[in-house]
Specification:
The chain has 348 residues and is of the alpha/beta class. It folds into 2 domains: 136 residues, 3-Layer(aba) Sandwich (Rossmann fold); 179 residues, Glycogen Phosphorylase B (Rossmann fold, 3-Layer(aba) Sandwich). It has 13 helices and 12 strands. 43% of the residues are buried.
Amino acid sequence: MLKSQENILVVGPAWVGDMVMAQSLFMSLKVQYPDCRISVLAPEWSRPLLERMPEVEKGISLLMGHGELELGKRRAFGKSLRGEQFTKAIVLPNSFKSALIPFHAGIPKRIAWKGEWRNLLLSDCRRLDTNAFPLMVQRFAALAYPVSNDPPDQIPEPRLQSDPASVENALATFGLGIENRILAICPGAEFGVAKQWPAEHFAATCKTKIDNGWQVWIFGSEKDAEVANEIRQMLAEEQRQNCVSLAGRTSLAQAIDLLSVAEAVISNDSGLMHIAAALDKPIVALYGSTSPDFTPPLSNKSKLLFTDIDCRPCFQRECPLEHKKCLTELEPSRAIAAITELVPTVRN
C-alpha cells in the first residue's frame, strides 16, 4: 500500500451506468493512496451520483456538450485547472477530446488506455488486452495501479450512499409510503428498443406481485413515460392503485433515493440497473441484444436473465430481424421466480 498526497483528476464517462462502475476505480485509488484527493470531471447530470460516492472530494462540471470537440474551449478549460495542482489524471473515455483537458491543465501524469489518436496527449498510454480485462469495471480499476497485464485480484463493488433525510424528502414529494413491499421496475433503455423487455411482460410481472401484496414503482426518464403508462394501463383498475409511474417525474437524485428503499428491482440493461446494484438491492437484470459478459450488475444479489436464441447478443439498437425474440421469449415467470429466489418470503 502506498501513502501519498496524490491529487487526482479523473475524467469520467458520459453514461450513467459507466459512471457507477467508475466508483470501483475511485475505491481502488483509495486503497492504493489512502490520503489521495479525487476530483471527477464529468457532465453536470452526474453530480447526484458523485455526491453519493464518499471517495470523491469534488465534482467538476464539464460544460462542453457530449460529442462536441470544441478545441479552444477545452484548451481554455484545461488551463483554468492549473491552479488545482493535480498530480495525476486518469482518463476513462476512449476519445481524443477526453484527453485534451488534462493535457492543457499541465498534469504531469496522464494515464489511459490507448484510443483514438491520443497517444501524444498521455504520459502513460496503455495497450488494452481485452482477453485479460473482459469487463469494463476491470478496465477502469486497472488504471489505479501500475502497468500490469493482469486484472486486480479484488475489485471493490460500487456502493452508493443514500442520505435518510433526502429519502424522506423524496417520499414526501411524491406522496409515497413504504408500508408494503416495493418492486421497482425500470422498463426503459437509452441504448434502444432492442434492450427493452416488452411492456406486457413487465405488466404480467407487476400483476403477480401486486396480487401478492406488493406495490410497484416505475422509474425512468421522460422518454420512458409512455411505456410506463402503457404498463399501468394493462393492469386492472384496482391494481393500478398500487402502481405509481415516476418516469420523467424525478430528478436523478430522487430516483437514487427512492430506489434505495425498494425491496427488489427488475431492470433492462441500463444505467438504473447499475444504480440499483450499487445500492445493494436484489436485482433481476434483463438482457436482450446486449450481454452481461461486459457490463453486468456488480452485486452478488443479482439474477441475470436472457435467452439462448442464436442471434443474441447482436448489440444492435433495434432488432435486425424485426422479431425481438431474445426479449419476447424471456417469459415473465422467470422474472417472478428470480424475485422469489432473491427476496426472503418474510419481510425483514
